Protein 1
Amino acid sequence: MPYTYDYPRPAVTVDVVLFNKTSTGVHCLLIQRKNAPFKGDWAFPGGFLDMNETLIEAAMRELKEETGIANINLQQFKTYDAINRDPRHRTLSTVFVAITDNINQVAKAADDAQDVKWWPISQMPLLAFDHQQILDEILKSKNSTL
């Protein structure tokens, strides 16, 4: 029998920020959310951690499920834990980042993504959740090569 606690626990999610450098500039892959909250808004691919996987496994699974893109070298960036970052409940999210050059995989929306698109980082749409803050921190990071 699994052990349970009498106290509430936060949900754990992952988000993937995938950049692609091309001859026309740097683009970021976003999904358009199919479900509430933020239905119809743009966000990073991501989702909830399953009980039988690590954070990196969850990030790779979510990226593939929502966009069809696989086999990307993801690097853990930071964990976000603001109390109200997700309107559904208390949620912690670990963000993974990858920078590619002229990716040869075609992104296709699937699972809970109704659309997927590469956006020029100079023309990003309004982002769901705290994803604008995340993007800003990645772009300002001393390790950023964008």
Protein 2
Amino acid sequence: MKLAVFDFDSTLMDGETIDFFAQELGFKDEVVAITERAMAGELDFYASLVERVALLKGLPQSKVEEICQSLPMMNGAREVVAGLKEKGYKIICFSGGFRDATKPACEKLGIDADFSNFLHSENGVLTGAVGGEMMYSEAKGDMITRIQNLLGIDRKNTLVVGDGANDLSMFAHADTRVAFCGKPILREAATHCVDVKDLREILKIV
């Protein structure tokens, strides 16, 4: 058995989920600027996540679900999942974003499991609070080692794919590390770089 772990935003999905939410409230430019700095490693991921989600206060949960059902998948997402499964990979998604987005997308793609964060809501409206499994910069590294131990898979048989600084911690536990249209800080830690928006390129690597 082999393990493939993908980031979600700007990796499996073409864009940042929180930017789509912020656009509904007129805060997109402000949120995009914070996201870009966080992905470049210039801001603490936890602090930036809390700051960005606070701006979503007042967004109806129904709008969250509507947006998440129509997020654009990255070119080649379905094909790379199918191709890796044929090669014996278990495929998991780690996201510093939100389960409202990862759950439906991963079900459509046939991904085995997803780990992400939860947006808090009351009376059908977001409160601006967030909690979950992927809120810290080291969260993906911590989770991947637990999954490797659980499945009995070593780093030699582990593939990781991501684009930003919060993927660094999981890169430390895999021998095949793909920076997908990645930020410079992640490219330095990668064994392979894919610079076109086509996930099928990963099948050439494995």
Protein 3
Amino acid sequence: MTRPRILDPRAVPVAGTDAHLPALDVQGLDAQGLRARFRGAKPGWTPEFEGDGPWPSDRQPAAAAVLVGLVPRPHGWQVLLTRRTDHLRDHAGQISFPGGRQEPADADAAATALREAEEEVGLPRQQVDVLGTLPPYTTVTRFVVTPVVALLPPAPVLRLDEFEVAEAFEVPLQHLMTPAHHQRHVFQAEGIERQFLSMPWQGRGSDGQQREYFIWGATAAMLRNLYRFLSR
């Protein structure tokens, strides 16, 4: 059985939002508070979203990692995200964290995330303060992705790999940690139902122009897991 592809996630109906859940007041969280959350994390925590779903696949699982970079700005914490270039074979034009497949030389998930961030957006790894990791998220393409949460410099200077990354931009963490902005979609095709989250955000891009960024799928699910983690 082949999985149904979602060609235009914006066109998939919204079944509802999670406005009944409280927003997380991240404005009251400083770097010390964030470090304390990860130091005090209990092992064996089960995230709300563990993967895209049990779609049949003959692909072997592959380890990967992404960098969930938090940028301290005068107006509050921001999350560094990227928009992939439109010509890529996989996930063209989608919003994602810097990251990718684990290489044999990588010591752990953090090493993978730091290497990939340096390759994709030119972020020097020595400027990244790793706080910890969230539980892995398994994508429909069988990547077992570990989110590595880290503090970035107040004004990171980036150099994009223009083949892979069309744009790097920041989204307010407060927006992403407000479940009223978390939309639940239900996609049906060929008798198969698939559900996913989205977190649309309208703001200025790296070129200063106002536009909507449609954050959805695995990226949105990992952000929702971060909300659950920080809310504990």
Protein 4
Amino acid sequence: MGVHMYIYEIELKVRDYECDIQGVVNNSVYQNYLEHTRHEFLEKNNISFAELHKKGIDAMVSSIEIAYKTPLKPGDNFISKLYVAKEGVRYIFHQAIYRKSDNKLAIKAKVNAVVVINGKLATALPEFDDLVARSEVKTV
């Protein structure tokens, strides 16, 4: 496992209806932010879930770990970032969300994904392997 760097970021804004009675973003909403970030990232890299599915290839989340650090509130702008690593057959999307106003870490997440090709667990997907390579910091 080498050193990695964030290779994608997107700015988003908290909407009032995403908050709970305590006036902060509900914990479950962060998964929507994370998923939206991954989908936008893949789209920017010309990877379409629909096109992959037509070829019998499905990438699926197998587990998610989220550490909640600083709550976001209505109207907060935030930056959602990610990089990709690989461990065995799993592609690991390391994601973080920072509140834009003070760059405070709101959450850190580790999203484990696997690829299934024609119903069988795959060991690799070239399109995802390229994303892993782009995330690795080259050291001399």
